Amino acid sequence: MLRPILEAFTYGVGLNWNAVILLSHYSVDKCLNILNRRDRVYVINKFIPALKVNLMADVILCHGGQGTLQTAFYVGTSVVGVAMQQEQFIDLAI
After folding, report:
1. How far apart are CA 41 and CA 19, in angstroms?
2. Contact 1/24 with Cβ under 8 angstroms?
3. How far apart are CA 76 and CA 62, in angstroms?
4. Which range of residues forms the domain containing residue 57?
5. How many domains does the chain divide into?
6. Cα–Cα nearest to 20, from 62, 83, 66
7. What are phi and psi of 62, to 5 degrees?
8. Distance CA 27, CA 68 (A)
9. Quick check: 47 and 67 in contact, CB under 8 A?
């Protein structure tokens, strides 16, 4: 599921978008290759402070975990959810 999301940043209006992509298991180098080393799209696999990122973001794309959703709602950031587990489906439906 990650590849089409990354590819959205490589053409059309996606070239104008800024992004921070937090990975858990996927290789940072693989992502950077798909992105063609684009400026303004940052890929990281280490902890980042969710509140600060949410304050800078126009939209949060996430699995729908409670912490991510609560932080996004707190600062008023829009959310696009791609649930992977049952509780994430429930949280995103609210």
Report:
1. 5
2. no
3. 15
4. 50-94
5. 2
6. 62
7. -150, 175
8. 22
9. no
The beta-strand segments (E) located in 1-94 are 19-22, 41-44, 59-62, 78-81
Rounded-to-integer distance, Cα 30 and Cα 7, Å: 12
| Range of lowest pLDDT (15-19, 20-24, 88-92) | 20-24
If DSSP codes are grouped into helix, strand and coil, which group holds residue 48? Answer: coil
**24, 3 in Cβ contact below 8 A?**
no
At 57, is the pLDDT very low, low, confident or very high (cuts 50, 70, 90)? confident
Task: Please tell me whether residues 58 and 79 are part of one structural domain.
Answer: yes
Same domain, 33 and 11: yes
User: Token digits for 80?
Assistant: 């696009």
> Residue 10 and residue 21: Cα distance in Å, rounded?
14
The answer to whether residue 94 scores a pLDDT higher than 80 is: no
- Domain identity same for 2 and 44: yes
